[in-house]
């Protein structure tokens, strides 16, 4: 069983230093991976946020 850390929209926004709407757009564009917990709660995997940051750094280089 994986112990992947799950982030709320606010947590991910804080890590990326962006708005919640930007995080929502990244989810919609499948730039970060999210999953549904229950019927309404979205959580974002911490590893997908880290991978997104790594891709952005790589593209900037």
TrEMBL record:
Originating species: Micromonospora globispora
UniProt GO MF annotations: DNA binding
UniProt domain Helix-turn-helix: residue ranges: 6-56
Domain of life of the native organism: Bacteria
Protein name: Excisionase
Pfam family, one: HTH_17
């Amino acid at each position: 069983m994986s112990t992947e850390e799950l982030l709320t929209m606010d947590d991910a926004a804080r890590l990326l230093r962006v708005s919640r709407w930007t995080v929502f757009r990244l989810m919609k564009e499948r730039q970060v991976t999210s999953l549904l917990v229950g019927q309404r709660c979205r959580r974002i995997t911490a590893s997908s946020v880290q991978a997104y940051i790594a891709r952005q750094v790589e593209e900037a280089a």
